[in-house]
User: Fold these one by one.
Assistant:
Number 1:
Amino acid sequence: EVQLVESGGGLVKPGGSLRLSCAASGFTFNTFSMNWVRQAPGKGLEWVSSISRSGNSIYYADSVKGRFTISRDNAKNSVYLQMNSLRAEDTALYYCTRDGGSFRDHDPFDIWGQGTMVTVSS
Amino acid sequence: DIQMTQSPSSVSASLGDRVTITCRASQGISSWLAWYQQKSGKAPKLLIYPASTLQSGVPSRFSGSGSGTDFTLTISCLQPEDLATYYCQQADTFPRTFGQGTKVEIK
């Protein structure tokens, strides 16, 4: 079964750091680009970051650029999101997603994890 | 950045009704348009990509159309399990962007 399982969320104070992890299973991880998408409570979906199969190409939303770092470990079938200088507006459910893989550079998010909640509050 | 504008923000319809949701991109995105369904408390699910291709297992009452800047998601015969929020998303360029969502309610 194709599956993504996020972990690492929690409550953190403004200015603090958190590292999210996403464990993939059921597919050949190193042949798919991966992403993080977030959803603030009661709000819509916001793309956060993407990383290519090899990790050579990385993209960030302007709202997190310079504060968040995406990475992957293909040997461990995992993708990570290091979040520094956290702000209240980063409070959200963070989803790990997989690119579909059929439309090079134009893939949708075809597999989603269940999300891990990040709350930034003093 | 490409802005995605969905309308309406919510729609209330009766079972069996035809429901249409539109999505407009601020610039042309060819057919690189995805539709997702998100039920309450669940992760989004990919329904249609690109633009008009139904994903495996998605009921045929769902259909998508459009290219360039204007796209449509249609539910031909609304069912109780279609209660959800629907999002469009462009996969043409980075940053990837979503529409604000359309909440479908059963009248």
Note: The longest strand of chain B covers residues 19-25.
Number 2:
Amino acid sequence: GAGVSQSPSNKVTEKGKDVELRCDPISGHTALYWYRQSLGQGLEFLIYFQGNSAPDKSGLPSDRFSAERTGGSVSTLTIQRTQQEDSAVYLCASRRTGTGHNEQFFGPGTRLTVL
Amino acid sequence: KQEVTQIPAALSVPEGENLVLNCSFTDSAIYNLQWFRQDPGKGLTSLLLIQSSQREQTSGRLNASLDKSSGRSTLYIAASQPGDSATYLCAAYSSDYKLSFGAGTTVTVRA
């Protein structure tokens, strides 16, 4: 079956512009996570969606970052007024919830470069 | 907050040697622990997932152990090959299944 997909695979933008990154989770997976991998920072949690519950936004680094998940499936991570320090690989993961379903499955990531 | 540490940061070994990668975590109340592989410029490939009730998992030449009481996990790779060269990441699951990652160990296997 299809895995987690993300688009675009690469995005180059100018400082100050807004960007949208998309994640398509595995069908039937109700939990969705966004992570960021920056040089020198490692992989860090950004935001977590679980079904219809309010998302856990505790990892978002600033109010320029937001995310939504429509219809319990596709998610979009939006970064407004991008800064050079936003340059990173943004990874999405999904998980089927329920007893015994523990593993997150990762997409290939979107490499964002802010000039 | 869960802190995950991986030692060493980098490792270079000749082909055929066994690899031992260490991971430690500060909060022993983890749910699961997962090891990933990442090749340069690529995404994450899951290697092994150890459930909280398990002490180890094995897949081919890979074996991972988990000792929650001491806050440690170890990934063993037997008879290393040049194709094993990559960065290996350890990640601990919290109760809501968020992952806390270590910084990784970059492995080079010399032919």
Note: Chain A touches chain B through 22 residues (CB under 8 Å).
Number 3:
Amino acid sequence: GDSVTQMEGPVTLSEEAFLTINCTYTATGYPSLFWYVQYPGEGLQLLLKATKADDKGSNKGFEATYRKETTSFHLEKGSVQVSDSAVYFCALSEGFQKLVFGTGTRLLVSP
Amino acid sequence: NAGVTQTPKFRILKIGQSMTLQCTQDMNHNYMYWYRQDPGMGLKLIYYSVGAGITDKGEVPNGYNVSRSTTEDFPLRLELAAPSQTSVYFCASSPTGGGGYTFGSGTRLTVV
């Protein structure tokens, strides 16, 4: 079945550092790909998405490019802030039925 | 807009007790979902609904039941609580399915 694999956390960075969180997927068809963010004590929020190969999703300085050849959707940000500290989930959807989530990657940014 | 509202936020149950987790959305979304989140395990789908009167099982439905009598409400019922149901439960909705979900803030349930 479909699955999503994320890098283990926590990822610990200093403010203004470059961020990469790796995400790869396995799917039988052509899924849409998503990044969700969960701040402490809150529900998940959609961060960005891409619906077809080579699409780039972007929001709040975060970017991710849908790479079909490597089945990847890595999340990047050029300069992280303390307020970016959260858990980031990569997910895919092959239809209306459900999202399949990765296990999440915790990001800790120190001043 | 309130979005997706879940109640209660926290609950402690004894083994064998029953309870209903409430979920309401005010966005007129057809699709609604229940997920559970366990530490280090991501989110697992319990049940979902594509419209009023229509529900279906997800990956981990055992021990749970749902109903969808209106577009707005999608309650999750635990009939005989077990320690394995200790988790954080999230309700979500979507206008068309396909991944752009709006999540509630969650219910943290502990079964002792």
Note: DSSP finds no helices and eleven strands in chain B.
Number 4:
Amino acid sequence: DTAVSQTPKYLVTQMGNDKSIKCEQNLGHDTMYWYKQDSKKFLKIMFSYNNKELIINETVPNRFSPKSPDKAHLNLHINSLELGDSAVYFCASSQGLGGASYGYTFGSGTRLTVV
Amino acid sequence: QKEVEQNSGPLSVPEGAIASLNCTYSDRGSQSFFWYRQYSGKSPELIMSIYSNGDKEDGRFTAQLNKASQYVSLLIRDSQPSDSATYLCAVNMYSGGGADGLTFGKGTHLIIQP
């Protein structure tokens, strides 16, 4: 019974396409995140939602748009994909803001390759 | 600029020895500190958390925190080949009244030599 699940696990697409990544958590956490991990393994926060409210919106291109229909789901839609968007995207969840008490639980990641 | 610094390695340690991983952070107001382990192609996995100055032990792992020096470390005793992975230091940095999520270091690649 997966705690934080992401789909798809792999995504290969052409430049200019629009794609979505979905994330669901069954831990009852109230905060969810999107992180991007580049080829050098650096994990950088993109967005954070707390109870469906956008809390963190780091400097990412506005081609990236998160949506949280409820506190158990956080999706990421990417328009006009570019080569530089190729990375692994991780969804994570925590109880409370910032994972202050217990850290994060990560999903298994979505490896996005733009060709 | 909020930063978490780690030596990227690779750090090579013989099997059975103690592996020592270090991390410094820029925000003096940081409250919570975490170590994650990430195997190649896998997601980060939380292995230790620490919130107060001093040492915290869990099995073969010991986390050490020194807030005055803005320094966190992770010791792995009796290192095993299965400990070979990238270790990510993460810090919860607050600004104003809100939480900014975890800021991660770039990770230290640890290799345990049989």
Note: Chain A has no helices and eleven strands.
